[in-house]
């Protein structure tokens, strides 16, 4: 939950907007309705230092880091 992660850091919605580059309105809408673009979600995850969490979703099983995909080329 983004709001919980944000609050653990003692950040306001405005703080998260400034640190992520995502508009304050988008942050508010996301926390209220759960709607946001994928690009903005990634920016928020990066600001919260949680971007690596996406690797477990996006990387095929058996690969631990995205970089491994490029090393084989």
The helical percent reads 55-70%
Largest sheet: none
Low-confidence blocks of residues: none
By DSSP, the count of extended strands is 0
Q: Note the gap between the termini.
A: 36 Å
**Number of helical runs?**
6
Q: List the helices and strands in order.
A: HHHHHH
Portion in strands: under 5%
Structural class by SSE content: mainly alpha
Please give the radius of gyration in angstroms.
14 Å
Please explain how this structure is put together.
The chain is mostly helical and 73 residues long. The chain has helices at residues 2-8, 13-20, 24-33, 38-47, 55-58, 67-71. Helix 2 crosses helix 3 and helix 2 packs across helix 4. The mean pLDDT is 86.
Secondary structure blueprint with pairings:
Blueprint lengths: L1 H7 L4 H8 L3 H10 L4 H10 L7 H4 L8 H5 L2
Helix pairs in contact: 2-3, 2-4
List keywords for this structure.
single chain; 73 residues; mainly alpha; 6 helices; 0% strand
Question: What's the gist of this structure?
Answer:
With 73 residues, this protein is mainly α. It is 60% helix and 0% strand. The chain is elongated, with a radius of gyration of 14 Å.
């Amino acid at each position: 939950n983004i709001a919980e992660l944000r609050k653990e850091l003692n950040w306001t919605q405005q703080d998260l907007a400034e640190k992520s580059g995502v508009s304050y309105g988008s942050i508010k809408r996301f926390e209220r309705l759960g709607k946001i673009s994928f690009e903005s979600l990634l920016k928020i995850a990066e600001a919260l230092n949680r971007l690596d969490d996406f690797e477990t979703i996006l990387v095929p099983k058996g690969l631990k880091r995205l970089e491994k995909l490029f090393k084989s080329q």
